[in-house]
Every structure is written in structure tokens, then in C-alpha cells.
Amino acid sequence: MNDPVTSSVNCDKLIKMALAEDITGEDASTNAVIRGYVRGNVQLICKQKGIICGLNVFARTFLLLDDKTQITFNVKDGDMVEPGQLLGEISGDIRVLLSGERTALNFLQRMSGIATYTRRVANLLKGSKTRLLDTRKTTPNMRIFEKYAVRVGGGYNHRYNLSDGILLKDNHIGAAGSITKAVQMAREYAPFVRKIEVEVENLDMCREALEAGADIIMLDNMTPAQMKEAVALIGGRALTECSGNVTAENIKNIIDTGVDYVSSGALTHSAPILDLSLKNLRPAED
User: Fold this and answer.
1) Which parts of the sequence belong to the Quinolinate phosphoribosyl transferase C-terminal domain (predicted)?
2) Per the annotation, does 264 bind a ligand?
3) What pLDDT does residue 1 have?
4) Angle, CA 141 vertex, CA 9 and CA 278 arms, to 5°
5) Which helix (H) or strand (E) holds 84?
6) Residues 239, 206: contact at Cβ < 8 Å?
7) Which of 8, 154, 170, 214 could pair covalently with 209 via S-S, beta carbons 3.0-4.6 A apart?
8) pLDDT digits (tens, 9 = 90+) for 102-136
């Protein structure tokens, strides 16, 4: 696989788990009509305009069922695709083509949908300094694929998981007793090279986070006017990120606030799939 994330050894494990979910014992429908090896071909057809993403994951799904399967693509991840476009062809044991079809398409449609939606949102930020980030609001066991899709779509990844960075949210602050205490404890615990991000909900909290020495201040669920005031208050002494129900429909309201980053859970939890299909399955000619 081309990307360092999707080339991880974790990918095969996750793809196998998805296949095992769909084939707990046998593919009864396929085995009922195909009793032995028959070589065949099937075409990957686009049915909706969007950004294609996850081709290597799609291919790997079939290869894990049978490493003799042959897959050719006419496009690459990140390409814009159009309805009716022939995206590729898969050749091999017809039983493998049928049994792997749904799992392979689930990965490809989901990842392509995220890349398509991310591209749409990222395009709305063009001309501004603000970068678009994802969140940890991902489908369980799909994070490695969904965060890759965000990058293909033109977004950037926030921390991958809880081990990647310190982000002190409302409940962390409540557990520590205050923003000041939470930042102090984080500084004592973390190596000096690790940045500390603090979530704030109003200007008073913003002031406290700034005075406590936060490296990044997340402006959570603030109005555009409040965010603009907070950015002015921070004055470049910390990086700024805004968060809270950010979607394609409202992100334009954020552009003029001056924040460095905007994080959107909608990129991964609300993106519709891209409609794709495997069609025209037929036995291969001798």
C-alpha cells in the first residue's frame, strides 16, 4: 500500500476481522451456485461523482482471500471520479470475487465518502490560513483507514489516539481542579518537547489557559464573535483551534476568526459513502 499508515501491519489484521465478520463459516450463497474453481472477471464501476480513496485496501481484501487474485486500477487515490467511469477490474476465482465483494466495497465506499466530504470542506477554507483537522470520532477499528481518507481529501490529522498528545478537556480540568493545576500537572508529567492543548469554553477560561502556559488553546463551541475575541486575546502566544459541531454548512462562519486550526468530527462520523459497485461478473475467456 502506498501510504505509511495503510501499509501498517495492523491493516491486514483489521481487514481479516472484517472478512471474518462477513464469513463466519462459509459463503453459503456462493457455494450453492459455484461448486469449484472458475476463473472470472468483474468491473469496479463508479456511480457517483467524488474522490476515490482506499483502492489498496479494496485490493488487499481480495488478496487476503486469494493471493492469486489480479487487480488493475484505472485511477489512483485522490482522483476525482465520475458516474459510469470504469475504475478497475478484478480477476480470479469467482468464489473469491463474490465472497470479498461486500467487505471490499464497504472499505472503498466509506473511505471515498470521507475523502469526498473532506475535500468539500477543505475547499471552503481556501484562501485562509486555517487548516482543517479531523478528530478521534471515528468508527471503531476503522480509524487507520478513516484518518488516511481525511488526508487524501486534503485535511490534516489531529492526534491519532490518546497516546499521541496531551489534550486537557473539561473532564480532565474538573479532575485536576482547575486549568492552571491541570497544565501544571501535565508539564510535570510530560517531556518538555510535548505540547499541551487545553479546551476552553469562554474568555475567562481562555485567559487562564494562556496564563498557565498552554501551547494550544481549543475554542470549544464558541460563537464566531467569541472566537475572534479569543484569538485577539491570545495574540499569537499560543496556537488556536476551534471545535464544536463544525460542518460544511457552517465552516464559512469561522474563516474570518483567524484561528490556526479547525477540527471537525463530521469528516469521519457524518460523511456519506460514495456509491460504487462491482458489476458485469462473468467467467473468463480461455
Assistant:
1) 114-279
2) yes
3) 45
4) 85
5) none
6) no
7) 214
8) 999 999 999 999 999 999 999 999 989 999 999 99
Among residues 16, 39, 120, 137, which one is catalytic? 137
Of the residues 102, 187, 207, 228, which is catalytic? 102
CA Rg, the chain, in Å?
23
pLDDT mean over 253-269: 94
Predicted confidence band of residue 158 (pLDDT cuts 50, 70, 90): very high
7 marked as part of a ligand binding site: no
**In the predicted model, is pLDDT for residue 269 greater than 90?**
yes
232: cell is 485577539
C-alpha cell at 33: 451456485
**Residue 266 known to bind ligand:** yes
Q: Which entry of 39, 120, 169, 228 is annotated as an active-site residue?
A: 169
pTM beyond cutoff 0.85: yes
Q: In angstroms, how far is CA 124 from the centroid of its own chain?
A: 18
Point out which residues pair with 70 in neighbouring strands. 91
Instruction: Specify whether 199 is catalytic.
Output: yes
What digits encode the pLDDT tens for the residues 22-37?
999 999 999 999 989 9
* Helix segments in the chain, DSSP class H: 9-22, 28-33, 55-65, 94-124, 143-152, 170-176, 179-189, 203-212, 224-234, 266-269
Instruction: Dig out the grid coordinates for 246 from the structure.
Output: 463544525
- Cell 501535565 -> residue: 186
159 known member of a binding site: yes
Would you report the helix, strand and coil content of the chain in percent, each value rounded to 5? 40, 20, 40
